[in-house]
Amino acid sequence: MYGDSKTKIQKIFEKSTKNKHIYESVLLIENYSGDFSYQLGYGGKNTDTPFLMASITKLFTSTCILILREQGKLSLDDKIAKYFEEDTLSSLHIYKGQEYSKDLTLSHLLFHTSGLPDAIEEGSNKARRRAIYKDRQISIDETIMKTKQLKPHFAPDIGKRAHYANINFDLLRKIIEIVTDSTLEDVYKQFIFDPLGLKNTYLPIEEDDFVPNVYYKDTSFYLPNSIRSISASGGCISTARELMIFIKAFFGGRLFNKTVFHELEMDNKLQIAMSPIHYGAGYMKISLGGLVTLFMGKGELLGHLGSTGSFAFYYPASDLFFVGDVNQMAKPALPVRLVMRLAMSIKS
């Protein structure tokens, strides 16, 4: 099984870590049973080194939504107006003179089909610089206020369009907390951490909770307050070893009935800046058979990337899971290229 895959993996990993922007990295690849397992580290990082999952956290939030749906405690067809005060939602989504704020559903948030903009990524250059260089905690109310100052990209559910925006999952956090009458960290613990035995995966809450530094170009930043502000959309910390346990459970049916992937199989292309990524029910899809690979690959990668260089993907065509981190915010294409190259190089 998997032939001389380890040699190929090592060559691709070493080529990737020669990039001048990568100072540390970790990679763990396994099949579902664990019969095949291979790990590599760089810059002192290994499979038990904590790293910021960034937007892979969205898979945890998606898990909570799918479990609550399975329990009958919410529906993806629920209007978000059911969970928020009218003043909070008012003017959140106005497109071409028509207000859609009260029409938004949980499905729109989970699939990124709301059309809502991202207050950080799409704000001014000053806003983006402040997000990186100034560590401050931002409340959900402030995020909503900033979002209201920007124009939505489209009306909800129009033309099979998706636009990736953290606000969608920030809103899902509040809905999870309202439905469960608990904090998001407690829900993660109840639904994910405890059932999977994850001891080193957590949302940093207290002042003394360890938060790893993240790189932007050649500078290492410590951003505990910013990270606490985005708990549902990007604030979780884990290790490659534990993230592997989670990604197998997510797609393997250990956390919720995996028939949901057939029930909610719709996916839409994200904005051009995120090509070739599509978005499904709370997770990303990357085709390996398209133009970006010159039609040389097959199948698709399912999982999530993080803006800090983290990645967690399942490749059904070869029954393989890829988990790791390159810890670089300035080059979002690095982890995408790495995982695509790895998937295309390994033969089961």
UniProtKB/TrEMBL annotation:
<keyword id="KW-0378">Hydrolase</keyword>
<feature type="domain" description="Beta-lactamase-related">
    <location>
        <begin position="37"/>
        <end position="331"/>
    </location>
</feature>
<dbReference type="InterPro" id="IPR012338">
    <property type="entry name" value="Beta-lactam/transpept-like"/>
</dbReference>
<dbReference type="GO" id="GO:0016787">
    <property type="term" value="F:hydrolase activity"/>
</dbReference>
<protein>
    <submittedName>
        <fullName>Serine hydrolase domain-containing protein</fullName>
        <ecNumber>3.-.-.-</ecNumber>
    </submittedName>
</protein>
<dbReference type="Pfam" id="PF00144">
    <property type="entry name" value="Beta-lactamase"/>
</dbReference>
<dbReference type="InterPro" id="IPR050789">
    <property type="entry name" value="Diverse_Enzym_Activities"/>
</dbReference>
<dbReference type="InterPro" id="IPR001466">
    <property type="entry name" value="Beta-lactam-related"/>
</dbReference>
